[in-house]
Amino acid sequence: MVISTQDLSFNFGDQQVVKSLSLQVPEGSIYGFLGPNGAGKTTTIKLLLNLLKVQSGSIHIFEQDIQHHRINILSQIGSLIEQPAIYQHLTGKENLLNRALLLRVPVKRVDDMLALVQLTGAGDKKAGQYSLGMKQRLGIALALLADPKLLILDEPTNGLDPNGIIEVRELLIKLVRQYNKTVFISSHLLAEVERMATHVGIINNGELLFQGSINELQALSQPQVCIEADNTVDAANLLTRNHFMVTDVTDNYLYVPYSSKQKIAEINSLLNRNGHAVYSIGKQQKDLERLFLDITQKA
């Protein structure tokens, strides 16, 4: 495990914001750390980066205790906390050169990082003129300058437009697949994490509610039949009278637990015979957002 915490807890005064957190982040993974605002995500990240001192429990990164091997551990981590710390009046390349001098990194790395995050053509442009997506990619380039093994990102897609989100997602997947990095990313954009994460931890009120692979998370949910139909309330009542369990109804859709293909055919036939227009019907796994709501509500 690249990151392993055991019973990690942290209080701000009388308020406990992290409660007995035990994270397991495998090498070569994109670990999505999910939770609503105020769940304890940023506090946990600050503990991992030694920006806050451990009060209770332990943190091991690269199988070393952070309290005893702080310098060695942090030298192998790149991080981006919400917004990148960039000089707006300098060009993208000048920002990287400045950081390279501070870190005593070979200057050649600057051009390599610009190419990696696809900013070569904008390297001589003032960073203050960058779009949000370009600024986030520059922030990731700054975090990668010293060639760290682990990248820790706190809400890196916050405030980005769809193109910016796609740019950051594709970059992170590339870093793991082609450059053997491990990425720990916090977010509340659940659908976006689902598209790139290999592993997930779900936190709420400082407590870890779920941890495992994306496949394990999906396995927690029973598949359902999603039906797009006219007058969903009347359609739901009809299904209920005919002994089908309806689990959810919206203006355009209703949901029934999946049991077999034959049952889907029976539902479709029943609705058609009774004058309901069925626009679409099929088996569906719950998306991550619905799973998250289920898990947090049960807790």
What overall geometry do the principal axes of the alpha carbons give?
Answer: globular
Helical content stands at 25-40%
The oligomerization state is single chain
Q: How many structural domains are formed by the residues?
A: 2
**Whole-number mean pLDDT:** 86
* Biggest β-sheet: strands ordered side by side in the sheet: 7-8-9-4-10-11
CATH fold label of the largest domain = Rossmann fold
Strand content: 25-35%
Biggest pleated-sheet summary: 6 strands, mixed
Q: Could you state the CATH homologous superfamily of the largest domain?
A: P-loop containing nucleotide triphosphate hydrolases
Backbone structural class: alpha/beta
Element string (H = helix, E = strand)? EEEEHEEHEHHHEHEHEEHEHEEHEH
- The count of helical stretches stands at 11
- Write down the CATH class of the largest domain: Alpha Beta
Regions with little confidence, pLDDT below 50 for 5+ residues: none
Question: Any idea what the CATH architecture of the largest domain is?
Answer: 3-Layer(aba) Sandwich
Number of strands: 15
Q: Rounded to an integer, what's the Rg over CA atoms?
A: 23 Å
End-to-end distance, in Å? 27 Å
